[in-house]
Amino acid sequence: MPYEGGTTVMSRMPTAIRRSILIGAAASLAATTIAGVAPAQTTSGAKDTQLAASPMLRLHSAVSRVSVEQGRHDRVRLDLGVYAIAGDEGFRIDAHRTSWWKPITAEIVLPSGNVALPEGSITSFRKIKNFVTVTFTKRSTGETVSNRGFGFCPTNDQVRSVPEAPNPTRPYPTFCPYSPFTRGAVYGISPQYATRIFDEYGSRMQLPLGHYTATVSIAEPYAGLMSLSPTDATTTVDVDVVKDDGDGCRAESSLHGCKADGSTSKTGSAPSKAVGGSVPRNPVRPTTTSEAAPTAAVYPDLQSLPATSIELHRHYVSFAATVWNAGPSPLVVDGFRRADEDVMDAVQYYYDENGNELGHDPAGSMEWDARHGHTHWHFRDFARYRLLDADKDHVVRSRKEAFCLANTDAVDYSLPGANWNPYNTDLHTSCGTYTSMAVREVLDAGNGDTYYQGLPGQSFNVENLPNGTYYIAVEANPFGVIHETATNNNNSYRKFYLRGSGDNRYVVVPQKGIITENNGGCCF
């Protein structure tokens, strides 16, 4: 069953909140298996699953001993200093779903041919299920007190594992997708780079005060799929579970005593573009316009994702809406301020497959939005939201929406030309200030821009509407001000039921395919 008019939705939120998980491996199913995980299958055309001489992945403990503080309910944060280090060929997993009614499929990328991960390894783009097991044993007696699995996201901040590690030509994404309607993702660790097994916030578990040895292992079937030896797939660290001493300082190791926690170092490089070459970031007012869109240009393809986070607050139905770019070219729109006006003329730029600028055309306008929570330049008529009746025929409510374009969500990084490391991932990088004379707003291929419609004037007032079935329609580029490859995929529809009476009215949102949403809505 195809996607309905596009795909996903997710609310605008800091990138750090959306860090998640995912990764995988490839070759044969051995020993123990994860519950619900079927044997892996070799992808058609794969010739050989022989890995490079260096292991594709190995675990490493940065310290031999660590103290962790016990909090409420005896819970501790697993900041154990355990890293996954990629070999000379690097490590990469591609994941994708063909529709909302189909499970996620994933495969490990090998020079000799890709190999599929076991079915059920990935049920959410946030992580690979039970990728590692952690066993705690008492140091004094060897008694096992805990043994459990944890998911893994290999796109946490990456650092060089050795000084000779090459600078990656195309760094992998720095977070795992958070949206329930993500279509595709790429997860990887660059050659000879390392990333924490547990993210910077740390997974948590219950553990009594005491002195333990933690054994962290890449679980089966993953270790077997990657042909990892026990030495490569396992590492240990001594763990002292202690009470908080009250001054925010703890013994990090037996050598260093008590010191403040430090932050994880980062390795950065210039972000890659959706099409070859670099898109300049300083807009210059054009002196001419194209007669028509250049025939050699590669265009963006705007699509909308099903609304999510649909809730009723008093008399207003709120929701989150995402418009995304299926590429292969980025959407690049510059705004040029009119003299003594709070309006900018918008201009769309075109590029060829190598990223060379070919031309430009007018694309409507931008306006200064002085409302609290905005205070930036909005690209007018970028999207339209409509509340439709049960037959999708009658428009109950409608309004246009102006956006400050920002790459807030990874929607499908499996697409050719997707930009895994977009520049403008929040409002501070793209939307300008009141005194700006020009701005550049970009929506890169594979990325989406999500707004949460929670305020009166943005959400739909349903106070005087009868109970029944309704649809939230999200439409990208409703007035055709943007040149794109197709317009028959610009609409998405999300059904909900309005029920109850008086102050006890509520909405029921049926599940979309096999997609489940957290907290009955989005992903906070």
Describe the structure.
The protein has helices at residues 222-225, 230-233; strands at 57-61, 65-70, 75-77, 82-86, 91-96, 105-108, 115-116, 128-138, 144-152, 158-160, 184-189, 193-196, 204-206, 210-218, 234-243, 250-253, 257-259, 302-304, 308-313, 316-325, 331-337, 343-351, 357-369, 376-388, 395-403, 409-410, 438-443, 447-453, 460-461, 468-476, 491-499, 506-508. It has 2 domains: 17-249, no CATH class; 302-520, no CATH class. By secondary structure, it is an all-beta fold. Residues 1-52, 247-283 and 519-524 have low confidence and may be disordered. The protein is globular and about 75 Å long. Strands 21, 22, 23, 24, 25, 27, 30, 31 and 32 form a 9-stranded antiparallel β-sheet that branches.
